Amino acid sequence: MKEQSVIVLLEQYCGRKLYIEGRRCNLNIPDDISVIGFDDNPLSAFSMPPLTTIHLPKKKMAENYISILRSVLMEGRNETCFFSSDPILISRDSVCNFLEKTGGI
User: Fold this and answer.
1) pLDDT per residue over 6-29, tens digit each?
2) One-character DSSP codes across 43-68
3) Which of 34, 60, 73, 95 has the fewest CB atoms found within 10 Å of its own CB?
4) Whole-number Å distance between alpha carbons of 63 and 57
5) Contact 95, 52 (CB under 8 A)
6) Inter-residue contact 47 to 16 (CB < 8 Å)
């Protein structure tokens, strides 16, 4: 069974360079390496193959930041605030379906 490698890009603009270098080294995405981006850049859908990415709900995150700022600046609160936002996987063609490829676990 062939080993599968995964590269996670924290900055999707690096993805273009990775795709170019992968082709230069005769690596096929997703058969040889799987690639996942992290900031859901709209252009990632137009990569060849389209880049799988993780979307962060930026609007919800901004609302949380504003709420924290408001409570500190307008209400004088100073306790630590916590919030979380669930990331959303935008599945495209840059990741190998390992279970399908190997016939399951």
Assistant:
1) 888 777 677 788 888 889 999 999
2) GGGGSSSPPEEEE--HHHHHHHHHHH
3) 73
4) 10
5) yes
6) yes
Taking the CA atoms of 25, 30, 35 and 40 in sequence, report the sign of the dihedral they define: positive
- Residue type (1 letter), 48: M
For range 75-101, the mean pLDDT: 80
pTM of the model: 0.70
Alpha-carbon torsion, ordered 23, 25, 27, 33, to 10 deg: -110
Which DSSP letter does residue 81 get?
A: -
CA angle 50, 16, 5 (to 5 degrees): 70
4's tokens: 């599968």
